[in-house]
Design brief:
The protein is of the alpha/beta class. It is built from six helices and eight strands. The protein has a six-stranded parallel β-sheet. The protein has a two-stranded antiparallel ribbon with strand order 7-8. Keywords: Hydrolase.
Length: about 230
């Protein structure tokens, strides 16, 4: 990793809680630790916010609405669109507003990254099987190398979280998966452990084996030292 070519992207750590998110407190703590470590070495921090117009203009097809027609989630007339206070951006940080799940779809994120000379992303956020996963795939399609910090991510249920992380690990070849402790060690120039695929579809799973397969992805003992 060249720190001068790296940015941290924090996906949608907002006050919206209408659909429920598992283990969010731990994700927020790990995100703040990673933010602090990135700032300490001069790596820019970029936040995304999911936003829906309260009048429904531009809303995704068939997205849930209240009886009055307003979007159920992330309506721009509610405080739920704001980033959580515990990881609140500084004035010097970049905040990207988006109207679809991917942080790259019809946003200025790619432009900001290219302006900063970024080729490598550290990424985490919510939800793993939605906005995070689509952003990771879109980053890969734009030729960014990615370090996905798995304990900075979560979803509305554990199964979706595990499946999404495993699918990303299987098919995003320019991806390392690691936890917060190892990410910080990497940022500090120390040896660290991470998972990286050495073949396509390396973590095949069935409904019965998903938990064990996910353990191979996230257990430090199964990671490769860097």
């Amino acid at each position: 990793m060249k720190k001068s070519e790296t940015a941290l992207v924090v996906i949608d750590l907002q006050k919206e809680s209408g659909f429920g998110i598992v283990g969010l407190d731990g994700v927020v703590r790990n995100t703040q630790r990673t933010i602090d470590a990135c700032r300490a070495v001069g790596i820019p921090v970029i936040y995304t916010r999911q936003i829906n117009r309260h009048d429904g203009v531009g809303l995704s097809l068939d997205e849930p609405r209240h009886a009055n027609g307003e979007p159920q989630f992330y309506a721009d007339n509610r405080d739920s669109i704001e980033i959580l206070e515990a990881v609140k951006p500084l004035d010097t940080d970049i905040v990207i507003d988006k109207y679809r799940w991917s942080a790259f779809f019809d946003t200025r994120l790619d432009l900001m990254l290219k302006s900063l000379g970024v080729k490598h992303l550290i990424i985490g956020g919510v939800v793993t099987d939605g906005c995070l996963m689509t952003s990771v795939f879109d980053a890969y399609f734009r030729d960014y190398r990615i370090q996905l910090v798995h304990d900075m991510c979560t979803a509305s249920n554990e199964g979706a979280h595990m499946a999404a992380l495993t699918i990303m690990a299987n098919w995003v070849y320019a991806l390392e998966v690691l936890d917060t402790d190892n990410m910080i060690q990497c940022l500090e120039g120390q040896d660290y452990a991470a998972w990286h695929a050495d073949e396509a579809d390396a973590l095949q799973f069935t409904p019965d084996t998903l938990r064990d397969t996910f353990g191979k992805l996230t257990a430090p003992s199964s990671s490769s030292p860097k």
